[in-house]
């Protein structure tokens, strides 16, 4: 391979900047303006021009609605009814015989592509990304200093041959793996003046949850067991060698300590650090990610009440632990997809983020964390009026496009919801392994990993159907969110537990009388009949690109 080819990574691989936000405006502002990037080098001051993910809007194409009519009839013969109206007709006369027992009927409208005409019913009952410069890079010797804390042990590291396609837990070499924690001096000790300071107690807790002695007892073990190693051998001269070390820098990413801040970036992984400094001037030449120190040290509970005493069980420390798993997937993703396999296209952002959200969900029980569903240590769907986690935001904005990434908290909630459906219906940990260990980077990562012929649009309809039925613990196979208990997923000898989800247990609850949307790969849920038996009839006027799923459920006393 020539030198020019070896340098192709700089030009063709997205240097990923991942940020998880508690506030939509903060996230949007992060991508729209310049950002300070810190690197751990005392004699480097050059600026960095990088490829930065930046979302763009889509223009809705206009098309004429060529009206065609059809008549579709169904008869309910089971407890639940799930029927597809994947019909190119634009005028559908629809009827269903519900039988003698009272039922609820929902229409789920899903856009195959951007549509030009919104559907109605009357009843008698790939993103592009632009280059952007990152300036104002600070060095540790230029108004930014960090204290270095090494983990208190070293441990054997598995080799690439076993970590990428791992068949057992045999230790095959004598290399020692090490975790380094770096803390901004402004966030630690006497130099910290904002009241949310990193302590040795916090450092010990945070390092141990990521990496501690023993097997299958930390984030590193649980995540690499599924995906493979975060870094290893390669043939590129512009990438750093493997040092069997991960570095984590704790600093106030978005000046969260200032009174005007109402949210912040939890953390990010930036693959610039995987490059040599000769190739990328701002590189730390470390396998590392960045975590917000202010939020990690925050002792507030989920209601925003701060007792001033930091505990591991506080709201923000738990969120930051989950963030470690999230960012670790991004780190592994870069190596496994783009370096180890030499793929020269980046994975679609919505898929990469979805896999990180799925990772948080999958390891939550193992690391004693509430995870994205915000339920700690309980396999049931929990209690009503749950206001935290990803699902309340999804419920409020459930018509958000799955595949159009705007880097807001809404997008994270949308991809989590879809990913949580995939995990519970298509194999859990083994599905994630398959999604990582292939050469795909677009929606085929999902569709080709499921073992069936369903399109993404069909999967979106199945997902939304499962959301509607999530209040039931006996939903049909393939539409399961809620069994009333844990859903076990064992991969490579390690068992992961996925908790049940009832979308109607969250506040706000799901809107079942939605206004239709024209966004690509989005769905609209409308309850068209409530507590009805006998024959239900309606006329549907729709765009030819709109798919409709009819969902019928039995009426239950606590139905919302």
UniProtKB/TrEMBL annotation:
It comes from the Bacteria. PROSITE patterns: PROKAR_LIPOPROTEIN (PS51257). Pfam families: Peptidase_M30 (PF10460). This is Peptidase M30. It comes from uncultured Campylobacterales bacterium.
């Amino acid at each position: 391979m020539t030198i020019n080819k070896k340098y192709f990574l700089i030009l063709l691989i997205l240097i990923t900047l991942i940020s998880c936000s508690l506030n939509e405006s903060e996230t949007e502002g992060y991508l729209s303006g310049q950002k300070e990037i810190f690197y751990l080098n005392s004699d480097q001051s050059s600026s960095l021009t990088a490829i930065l993910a930046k979302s763009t809007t889509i223009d809705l194409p206009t098309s004429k609605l060529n009206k065609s009519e059809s008549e579709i009839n169904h008869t309910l013969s089971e407890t639940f009814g799930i029927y597809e109206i994947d019909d190119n007709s634009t005028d559908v006369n629809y009827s269903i015989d519900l039988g003698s027992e009272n039922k609820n009927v929902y229409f789920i409208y899903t856009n195959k592509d951007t549509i030009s005409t919104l559907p109605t019913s009357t009843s008698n009952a790939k993103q592009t990304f632009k280059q952007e410069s990152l300036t104002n890079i600070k060095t540790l010797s230029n108004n930014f200093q960090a204290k270095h804390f090494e983990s208190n042990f070293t441990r054997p590291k598995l080799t690439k041959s076993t970590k990428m396609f791992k068949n057992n837990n045999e230790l095959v070499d004598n290399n020692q793996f090490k975790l380094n924690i770096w803390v901004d001096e402004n966030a630690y000790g006497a130099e910290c003046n904002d009241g949310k300071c990193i302590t040795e107690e916090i450092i010990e807790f945070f390092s141990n949850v990521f990496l501690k002695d023993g097997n299958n007892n930390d984030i590193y073990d649980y995540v690499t067991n599924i995906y493979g190693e975060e870094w290893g051998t390669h043939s590129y001269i512009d990438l750093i060698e493997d040092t069997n070390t991960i570095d984590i820098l704790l600093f106030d990413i978005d000046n969260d300590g200032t009174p005007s801040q109402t949210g912040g970036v939890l953390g990010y992984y930036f693959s610039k650090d995987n490059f040599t400094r000769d190739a990328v001037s701002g590189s730390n030449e470390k396998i590392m990610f960045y975590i917000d120190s202010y939020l990690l040290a925050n002792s507030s509970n989920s209601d925003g009440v701060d007792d001033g005493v930091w505990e591991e069980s506080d709201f923000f420390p738990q969120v930051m632990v989950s963030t470690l798993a999230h960012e670790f997937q991004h780190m592994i993703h870069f190596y496994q997809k783009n370096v180890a396999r030499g793929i020269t296209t980046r994975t679609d952002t919505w898929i990469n983020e979805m896999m990180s959200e799925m990772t948080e969900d999958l390891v939550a029980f193992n690391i004693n964390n509430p995870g994205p569903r915000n339920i700690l240590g309980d396999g049931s769907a929990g209690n009503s009026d749950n206001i935290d986690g990803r699902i309340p935001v999804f419920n409020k904005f459930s018509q958000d496009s799955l595949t159009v990434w705007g880097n807001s908290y809404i997008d994270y909630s949308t991809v989590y919801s879809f990913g949580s459906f995939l995990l519970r219906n298509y194999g859990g940990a083994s599905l994630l392994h398959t999604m990582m260990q292939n050469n795909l980077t677009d929606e085929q990562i999902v569709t080709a990993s499921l073992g069936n012929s369903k399109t993404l649009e069909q999967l979106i309809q199945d997902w939304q159907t499962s959301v509607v039925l999530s209040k039931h613990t006996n939903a049909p196979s393939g539409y399961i969110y809620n069994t009333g208990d844990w859903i076990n997923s064992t991969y490579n000898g390690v068992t992961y537990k996925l908790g049940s989800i009832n979308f109607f247990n969250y506040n706000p609850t799901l809107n079942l009388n939605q206004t239709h949307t024209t966004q690509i790969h989005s769905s609209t849920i409308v309850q068209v009949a409530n507590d009805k038996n006998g024959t239900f009839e309606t006329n549907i006027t729709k765009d030819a690109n709109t798919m409709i799923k009819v969902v019928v459920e039995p009426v239950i006393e606590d139905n919302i």
